[in-house]
């Protein structure tokens, strides 16, 4: 089995304000650095254009949304074209007045925008009021074809659902990618923080194992103050990582600073792993009907 090498990179970034142009320029610099290191595929974190505005419910924040196509897609399409890379970005999409999505957009060199994925699972927790802003995605779990392979792009809260990863894998995804914005409540104890991070990393490594696919996770870092008086804000826990098709950690970032990660995969290894661990062969699809139900009594 011949090799098929692919060098990938991701950007872990801290966001200080809602100045999109400044944040885009910082992202561009990091993307360029990764391209110089040979990265053919680069991913940015979730909602990288602005602060994580979902800490409160405020209709003024809908002004931050971008049309697709629009200024943001024009900007990142140009970067992908100039560097001749595949670039995965994350935008607050304005589809129509009153209709918004949390959307990952993929660009492929001079081809421009080649696909998008609208976040399917939308959380609604203290400090993460995403249901106020985002309509659940309607594009399904459909991989995006690019010059470097078929990408299974999912977004943040999607990363907790094995069904999402499995459906992407069943549709031929060759890598699972998760732009992410997750962090700790400042009132959490150190022990609880470690449990949360451990669960987060473990389940995504599990998606790699269960589907014999590499996984890339780009999380933001830094503290973002809550606009609500008395709320503790969010300490985004960074720790972006890249795992191989058996869940092995190939690169990881620290919790508290910006960093880029670079890994070179032999994509043929995924097929080798699937030959040894044939989960898809042994799935009991004749007895999984109840998975489409909300609950079993």
Automatic annotation (TrEMBL):
Record domain CN hydrolase: where: 6-267
Example GO molecular function: N-carbamoylputrescine amidase activity
SUPFAM superfamilies the record matches: Carbon-nitrogen hydrolase
Tree of life domain: Bacteria
GO biological process: putrescine biosynthetic process from arginine
A family per Pfam: CN_hydrolase
Keywords noted in UniProt: Hydrolase
Alphabetical list of InterPro entries matching this protein: Aliph_Amidase/BUP, C-N_Hydrolase, C-N_Hydrolase_sf
Protein name, entry field: Beta-ureidopropionase
């Amino acid at each position: 089995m011949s090799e098929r090498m692919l060098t990938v990179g991701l950007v872990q970034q801290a966001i200080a304000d809602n100045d999109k142009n400044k944040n885009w320029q910082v992202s561009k610099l990091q993307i360029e650095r990764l391209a110089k290191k040979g990265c053919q595929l680069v991913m940015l974190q979730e909602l990288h254009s602005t602060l994580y505005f979902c800490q409160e419910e405020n209709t003024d924040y809908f002004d931050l949304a971008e049309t697709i196509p629009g200024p943001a897609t024009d900007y990142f399409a140009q970067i992908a074209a100039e560097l001749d890379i595949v670039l995965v970005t994350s935008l607050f999409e304005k589809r129509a007045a009153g209709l918004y999505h949390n959307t990952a957009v993929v660009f492929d060199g001079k081809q421009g925008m080649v696909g998008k994925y609208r976040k399917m699972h939308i959380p609604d927790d203290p400090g993460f009021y995403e249901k106020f802003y985002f309509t659940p995605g309607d594009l399904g779990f459909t991989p995006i074809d690019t010059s470097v392979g078929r990408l299974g792009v999912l977004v943040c809260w999607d990363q907790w659902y094995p069904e999402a990863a499995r459906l992407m894998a069943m549709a031929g995804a060759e890598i699972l990618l998760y732009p992410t914005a997750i962090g700790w409540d400042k009132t959490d104890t150190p022990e609880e923080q470690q449990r949360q991070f451990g669960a987060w990393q473990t389940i995504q490594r599990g998606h790699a194992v269960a589907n014999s696919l590499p996984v890339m996770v780009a999380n933001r870092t830094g503290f973002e103050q809550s606009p609500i008086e008395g709320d503790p804000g969010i300490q985004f826990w960074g720790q972006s990582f890249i795992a191989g098709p058996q869940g092995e950690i190939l690169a990881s970032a620290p919790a508290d600073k910006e960093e880029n990660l670079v890994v070179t995969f032999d994509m043929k290894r995924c097929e080798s792993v699937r030959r040894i661990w044939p989960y898809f062969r042994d799935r009991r699809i004749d007895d999984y009907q109840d998975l489409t139900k909300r609950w079993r009594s």
